[in-house]
Design a protein that fits this description.
About 45% of the residues are buried. The N terminus is likely disordered. The protein is built from 15 helices and 45 strands. The strands form nine sheets. It has a nine-stranded mixed beta sheet with strand order 43-42-45-40-39-38-13-41-44, covered by helices on one side. An eight-stranded parallel beta sheet has the order 14-26-29-30-31-32-33-34. The protein binds alpha-L-arabinofuranose. The site of alpha-L-arabinofuranose (AHR) has 12 residues, from loops.
Amino acid sequence: MKKILPLTCIVTILSLPALFANEPDSAWLFSYATERNAGHDGLHFAYSIDGQTWQSIGSEASFLTCDYGSWGSQKRMLTPYLISGSDGLWHCIWSLNEQDNAFAHAASPDLVTWKRQSYPRVASDNCLNPVISRKAGNYVITWISTTDNKLYGCETSDFKTYSAAQAINASQHNNNRKVIELSEGQATGQIHRVAWSQVALLKRTVDNHRYWDMLHNERTVDDPVRFAGLNSVDAKLIIRTGESKPISDLLTGIFFEDINYAADGGLYAELVQNRDFEYTSEDKQGRDPNWNSTHSWNFNGDGAFTIDTMAPVHANNPHYAVLTLTQPGGRLTNTGFNGIALKKGETYDLSLFAKQLDGKGGQLSVSLIGKNGKTYAQATTGRPTTGWKKLAVKLTANADVPDARLEIKPLAPGKIALDMVSLFPRNTFKGRKNGLRNDLAQTLADIKPRFVRFPGGCVAHGDGIGNIYRWKNTIGPLESRKPQRNIWNYHQTGGLGYFEYFQFCEDIGAEPLPVLAAGVPCQNSSSGGGGQQGGIPLCDMDEYIQDILDLVEWANGDAGTTKWGQIRAQAGHPKPFNLKYLGIGNEDLITDIFEERFTLIFNTLKEKHPEITVIGTVGPFWKGTDYEEGWAIASKLDVPMVDEHYYQSPGWFIYHQDFYDNYDRSRSNVYLGEYAAHLPGRPNNLETALAEALYMTTLERNGDIVSMASYAPLLARDGNTQWNPDLIYFNGLEVKPTTGYQVQKLFGNNAGDSYISNTLSVNTNDDKVRKRVAVSVVRGSQSGDLIVKLVNLLPVAAKTRVTLDSTFTMESNAQRTILTGKPDGLRLIPVSDLIDISNDFACELPAYSFTVLRIKEKSK
Ligand code: AHR
């Protein structure tokens, strides 16, 4: 599908020599992999005219890489074996690693585009040096198992089902691998006789990649050379106000994922870290000995602080603290998330569950104490009883403190159990209980996002089946929620759960867009299975699908007549949340395992809830196997919308502004669920922000099929980032929106629901210049305003003449907002003013700038 136009000329030119040059009809093609990079580099090719001297194609360019297992230790291709099949396809099999009882298979019509991979578990032990051959319409696969040093084989006709593995003798293992010399060193692989056109295609593919890489790597640091001699450009924008098409009114939204401490320690206003004593070394896969139930807690004074699980407040929350004091004075402190930030005069609600296990016991003194030892707030709770009892008290800070600690001091000796120790600012967003940090939530609300996607990302599909995010674990009383490992290697309490997400959406007027796993975990999972994506066993899928149906009922069901509607009402929201969109899957590896489960979920939702728009998934990239296969499934099932993801260089965004122009309007709509411009060092600066703005103008232009878009990731706590760049950085006290945030905010605050026809021309034939100036014109039916967005990613001003048709009568001035500065500007802020306008006016776009004009039509 699409993407052909800009390449056409290059491809034609590159393919012309084959017509003229003195080239052979056929050649030798060598297929191989190396173990240089632990097998991560995948399948390479070399060719030879005479069968003696070999040249590698693209110097070990990768034509197929392995998708099996987690990043780092897995995703290896060992000893690939390639044959030309009876079905006209090439079939490649390879060994995955030294231990797993599976091999990998993928097929290709041309050795360039590859179909989905599969990893059949045919062996009882490991599966090395696999070989494939044809036998009477079938394929025979043989391999060596080094655990018993025997050879095995099995047969298949379709690479979906395989006969049982049988021991074979050496003559049946048809290993035709050869060793050849290449300039990169010796290589082991197979020799094939192919038409020269096959070799030419592989070479052309490498040349095309190199050409595109060159464009994608263009950066502003090279602009002084690239644009030497360019002083300014003249541009002409003609706006035809009478010609328009409707576009999505949901285009700009946000994608919230608990990454970079975005939830606990971030948007979720809880100030106590590890409040439930449920941190476990598994959260960090055993790599941090200090990451356990006592993390963030310290005990000082006489006595002991231990962790118990004998009789918890709730089975879902089994660990709790036990303090044993022979005399008063012992105190338990919590350090919060890099300290507890306090604001003078603000009230903080402390609550905890306590149980007197031994001794008479007494009240608990709770204090907020600075690093200097000063007490900034103090209060005393009621007396614990012999059963779990929730105690609550209010604390008011008497100063601003960036990094206080919470101290709990039993006033009498004895043995006491504590759990769910919580400290919340009373001033949460909209004053919600168990609410969100006001400043962060407001910063998000200021974007005016039209939807919120949650809870991920990788968090949604999780690290292995057991880590798939289950929405039911995140609702109800906090002590009953099931905390779990966060795939980004920390801990999620579930305190910010589905109820809070939906409530936030309602509070900011955004559509909730929950994303649920498609019955498969993250393809990069490192735990919970045999290394590959795997999937919920089919026998458990009914239950899994029921959970999804229950979610729809929980969100939309009647409080009086439905079970889940009633549960929502009991939690404090009798009115339905009005859920309209549901994402199924997150950039999954598209395998048969995925397709089977996605189809089951999709068909059930379509049947039971035709009112819900299901959003499918098409892999993590803008092209390639998952993208193509994901789109094919979406078309086959008629999925209304698909979620595309791509993180690319600014150059990519500059040179792919036509990405959606060529999309087939009869297929699924698009939700661009994750995108961002990435530069080396991963800053979020004016250069990346302008590349995104440039691209967002194309999203508006294609707003008839691109329904939603969200930058990713959203939030990052200083010192706790797993991913850069992000849109908003923060610490305990400050919120630090990036330059890219300002772009999102300008789009969110200047959205329209119709796209106005326009033409922008720049007085040059130089594509590098032309592609750096972009425009979109929209109109909002509510405001009636005509909104013109102009991006100039050039190092010089673009002197622009704007012409509107004479029938359009407007106010004589327009609001102009400009975001500009140096390309490396990290926290730039836009500036607004009023400018005089008419049906033909001049508007200079400063070098490296994003300009928004709001033009008001004169009331007649
Ligand atoms: O946005 C960060 C991550 O990027 C998301 O979790 C995942 O979907 C993507 O790979």
